[in-house]
Amino acid sequence: MKLTTQQWNTAATYIKTHARPIEQKLFSFYFEEGSKEEAIKELSRFQNRDGGFGHSLEPDFRLDSSSPMATTVGLQHAKDLKLSAEHPIVQKAMSYLQDTYDEEINGWHAVPEEVNLVPHAPWWHFDSEKGHSGVQTTWANPNAEIVGYFHSFCPEHPRLKEWTERAATELNKLSHPIEMHDFLCYDRLLSEVKGETESILYKILSSSVRKTVCTDPSRWNEYVAKPLQIASHPASPFYEALKEEVHMQLNVEIETQHQKGYWQPNWSWFGQYDETWPIAQEEWKGILTLGMLRVFDAYEDVNYK
User: Please, is 293 exposed, middle or buried when counting C-beta atoms within 10 Å of its C-beta (0-12, 13-18, 19+)?
Assistant: First the structure.
C-alpha cells in the first residue's frame, strides 16, 4: 500500500522538472519544508485584479479572465495552504464571488460565455441558449462548493443562511446516484458546516456514496468517480464506507504509476484544439501526480486489516 522510495523519488523528480511552478512550489512546501510564501506567490499569479482566478489554473479551459469555477480551484489551494479569511488572496476572491452572484439563477455561472473564445474541453463550452456550460446541469456545481467557502471565510454574510438552505434543498432534489462532480461540491460544503446542516448533508451524501463511487477496479481507467476522489484522506467522513475500495485503489495506483513518475489524466478533449490539449495534458500530469503523492502521504500510517 506504500510507494517505494524509488517510486516516490521518480514522482518528485517529474514534478520538479515538468510540472508548473505552482505545483513545484506546493510540492516543496508540502514535502520539503519549502517556503509557504513562495507557494502563495505562485498562486497569486493566477488571480486577476477583480479578485477572481483565471489564467488556466484549471487547465481544461484556457481563459485568462476570471471565472467562478477557476476561483473555486484557487480557494481549494487557499484552504490547503491554511490561508486566513483576512489574507488578501482570500478577501479578493470572496469579493469577486459576491460581485458575480446572479440573482436570476440564484447562484454562480461556472464559466462566462467568453470561454467559447479560447481553447477548452467540450464540457466547458457555454451554451448561449441554455445559459450555462455543459458541466452545469444542476445547481450543485459549483454553487454548493462556493457556499462552503462563504461558511469558511465569510460566516457573517447576510445571505449565507438563505444560500445554505438552498443548498440543502437542491441536494434533496438530486437523483441518485449523485453525479460525481455534484457529490464533490457537496462534500466540500459538508466540511465547512456544523450542526443540523452537517447532519442533513451527510445523511443524503452517505446514502449515495457507494453508488456514486465506482467500486469496480476494472473500470478505474475510465472517467468515473474513484474511491480516493471521495476519500482522499482517512479523516474523510466517507472513508469507512469505502475502506476496502480505498485500499484496493492505493494498490492499483502503485501499479499504474508511469515509469517516468507521473499519473496521467484518463480523459481528453476528443480531438478538439489538438494544438492545446497536449499542453493541458502535461499540466494535469503535474497536478495529478502532486495530488496522488498527497494521498499516499495521508494514508502512510493507516494499517488496513
Answer: buried
- Flag whether the pTM goes above 0.90: yes
106 Cβ neighbours under 8 A, 6+ residues apart = 139, 166
Q: Angle at CA 286, nearest 5°, toward 283 and 289?
A: 145
Please give the average per-residue pLDDT across 88-112, as a whole number. Answer: 97
- For the record, the C-alpha cell of 222 comes out as 475510465
3-state DSSP call for residue 126? strand
The bridge status of strand 126-127 relative to strand 132-133 is antiparallel
- Which among 54, 78, 24 has a CA at the least distance from the CA of 188? 78
Could you read off the pLDDT of 50-85 as tens digits, one per residue?
999 999 999 999 999 999 999 999 999 999 999 999
DSSP 178: P
pLDDT in the model for residue 14 = 98
Q: Check: CB of residue 190 under 8 Å from CB of residue 231.
A: no
- How many angstroms separate the CA atoms of 30 and 295, rounded? 12
Q: Kindly calculate the radius of gyration of the chain based on its CA atoms and give it in whole angstroms.
A: 19
| 132 DSSP assignment | E
Rounded to 5, what percent of the chain is helix, strand, coil?
Answer: 55, 5, 40
